[in-house]
Amino acid sequence: MRNEVAAIAIGRNEGERLARCLASLEGWTHPIIYVDSGSTDGSTNVAKDAGAEVVELDMSRPFTAARARNAGLARLAEIDPDCEFVQFLDGDCELQDGWIEVASAALVADPDLALVCGRRRERFPDASIWNRMIDHEWNTRIGEARACGGDALMRRAALDEVGGYRESLIAGEDPELCYRIRQKGWRVRRIDAEMTAHDAALTRFSQWWQRARRAGYAFAEGAALHGSGSEGYRRPETRRALFWGLGLPMATILALVLFGSAVLLLLLVWPLQVVRLKARGLDWVSAFFLTVGKFPEAQGVLGYWIGRLTGRQRRLIEYK
Hints:
This protein is of the alpha/beta class. The protein is 48% helix and 17% strand. It folds into 2 domains: 2-203, Spore Coat Polysaccharide Biosynthesis Protein SpsA, Chain A (Alpha-Beta Complex), CATH 3.90.550; 222-310, no CATH class. The chain contains 12 helices and 9 strands. α8 (205-226) packs across α9 (235-259) and α10 crosses α11 (284-292).
């Protein structure tokens, strides 16, 4: 079973994290392809020393993670066109022992299953509140799913049917791929198995803000692409970001101008939202930052539409 699974890892300046990533794939996948996006820290040499097939992107073209993953798929088609399954992961992740066996068995058992993902965990969840929040974010529901993240074992046939990743997306490329795959009748599933360890390395408020802004951008672009369908893809997330991060603050300011301190009770809406999230099982700090996170998400939504309406060239929103 192991010989039927290839791996494609992508990264830029991941350093020691990349070495751990590639070492975790050894013995479980073949071939191992590493796609580098303009690293300056010797990552390509690290990958070559680890025995990986290295693809270096032409950085004269705009970079996206989707483009990197497609480049890996193109190289895989050249060196192993008959490989049935491919494990994607980012260079800051490590594959867990046994994942390939469990995940590939799930794909073999269900020919309608396009991809499976498992439990992604943060390596250092206690390093910061933001790392802890991300670790909670990864813990999605077991069973049929609408999307996965950047780590997943995928069936090549499903990828080929939809033409791979949408290279123009600067964020949200994985859920968008899953949406198109599901529209073709394939299914996506999260199974109850340990998959990867991830190192978000979020230690500053500014990093968390940028990550939330990127999410808002992805919500808006996803809704623009597919939101008119029956599923309303990304429309609920976009609406929530605009309501909490833009509409409600503007309405509060306007009400204060028109009616004065009589409407100060509106300011209680945000603390009540924190209480509501706490009641859903979050700790107080996570509930607070999830509420505040709607402001950068709204910023991302606005950024997408401003860029689209003005024709401004899109740039990556990076947080590390």
